[in-house]
Specification:
globular, alpha/beta, 8 helices, 3-stranded antiparallel sheet, binds 2-phosphoglycolic acid, single chain, 11 strands, Rossmann fold
């Protein structure tokens, strides 16, 4: 592991040789936070990125190192429309990869409902729940290859509340691997907006793989812009990045060039 610093930016970035190491380090971070506050409010993400983190949290729970009995979880997003019982729903994903293996109470799980009759009302309802808690203690984030966090897709603005979003072609192609075919990927999703993500007391973002290197460079190095929604995290009060070497590769070459060619 090495910690890197981007000149002028004060958020910690940890770079690991492998995805497994990055996931374990993220799990240590999350576990340490939960230990400090049993009734922890934990914001969660789906996708392949957090699976290693979830595996490590399950192991820690089984060993009695962390207790989820008083923890409340808040997921970032859900496809729309989708039945929560559909095996491709994010609720099913969370059950399979985390919830069914830890001592979390089902009533403490929060996730937008993909089969609500009116998605805009459902978005309002979820936002009210998020406003009522005043921000999760820790939000876990992945990043899309187009820079999305949650399903906040590249846009002309940062949309603050929970909202219905049209998924980009890029996201639909990226996520087709979870579905029988690309045409089965829902075209829309309900997502926590940038407001609730920024209200989180802490955020961690995990990224691995070369296909994330550009999004990570734009998000961490360049001026924040809604064209890369993750770039807003540069303004977050307490964000930590856990990257594997591939995801960090464009930042690492930038830093090397900066050292080789000081101005
Ligand atoms: P992935 O998705 O972890 O499956 O790459 C990340 C995301 O869309 O946030």
């Amino acid at each position: 592991m090495k910690q890197i610093q981007i000149p002028g930016k004060n958020f910690p970035i940890f770079v690991y040789d492998t995805y497994e190491e990055a996931s374990l380090a993220a799990a240590e971070f999350v576990a340490a936070e939960i230990k400090k506050k049993p009734d922890f409010l934990l914001g969660l993400a789906t996708g392949s990125t957090p699976v290693g983190l979830y595996r490590a949290l399950i192991e820690k729970n089984k060993k009695g190192e962390i207790d989820f009995s008083e923890v409340k979880t808040y997921n970032l997003d859900e496809y729309y429309p989708i039945s929560p019982r559909n095996e491709q729903s994010f609720l099913s994903f969370m059950k399979e990869n985390l919830f069914d293996h830890i001592n979390l109470k089902p009533e403490n799980v929060h996730i937008p409902c993909g089969e609500a009759p009116d998605p805009n009302l459902e978005a309002e309802h979820y936002e009210k729940e998020l406003l009522a808690i005043g921000g999760v203690d820790l939000q876990v984030l992945g990043i899309g290859s187009d820079g999305h966090i949650g399903f906040n897709e590249p846009d002309d603005a940062f949309i603050l509340p929970t909202h219905l979003v049209t998924l980009t072609e890029q996201t639909i192609s990226d996520n087709a691997r979870f579905f029988p075919s690309k045409k089965d990927v829902p075209t829309h999703a309900l997502t926590m907006g940038i407001g609730a993500i920024m209200r989180a007391k802490k955020c961690i973002l995990i990224a691995n793989g070369k296909n994330k290197a550009r999004a990570i460079r734009e998000a961490l190095l360049e001026n924040p812009s809604p064209a890369n929604q993750a770039s807003i995290l540069q303004f977050h009060r307490d964000v930590t990045f856990f990257l594997d070497h591939d995801a960090a590769s464009e930042i690492l070459s930038f830093l090397q060039d900066a050292v080789a060619d000081p101005v």
